[in-house]
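Good morning,

Attaching, inline, the backbone tokens for the sequence recovery test we're adding to the shared suite. The designed sequence is right after.
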């Protein structure tokens, strides 16, 4: 019995190291999940805003139909890029957010958001060896006239 005394003491540092490693993986995975949800929310809100802001007013007045103006949509590109950068600055690497806007039909707009999500813990538990994780999200905003 005396020869086995203290053998459990060697397992404690290994156990602490394993728990720290698994904890860092969990924290980084949660941060990536948060970044994915934030990117999806940004894409959805931008798509809904852009489908309203890119309204072709003459089509609505003269024909009574809601249509997206491609020229207005192009002019709103820099604005949407700036909005997405500001909204996602807390969870994405600076300057990594890119926004693509395209018509998705006569009264719909597709918005794609891509960027590099920051890791919280860093390289501990980082299997890929990169300091950030790529994240992408897309949404379609559709306009419907009521009444």
């Amino acid at each position: 019995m005396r020869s086995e005394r203290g053998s459990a003491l060697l397992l404690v540092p290994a156990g602490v190291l394993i728990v720290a490693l698994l904890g860092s993986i969990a924290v980084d995975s949660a941060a990536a999940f948060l970044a994915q949800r934030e990117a999806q929310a940004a894409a959805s809100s931008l798509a809904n805003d852009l489908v309203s802001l890119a309204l072709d007013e003459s089509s609505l007045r003269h024909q009574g139909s809601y249509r997206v103006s491609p020229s207005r949509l192009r002019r709103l590109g820099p604005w949407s890029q700036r909005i997405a950068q500001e909204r996602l600055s807390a969870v994405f690497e600076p300057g990594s957010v890119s926004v693509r806007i395209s018509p998705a039909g006569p009264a719909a707009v597709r918005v794609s958001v891509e960027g590099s999500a920051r890791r919280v813990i860093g390289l501990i538990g980082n299997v890929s060896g990169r300091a950030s994780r790529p994240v992408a999200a897309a949404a379609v905003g559709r306009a419907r006239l009521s009444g």
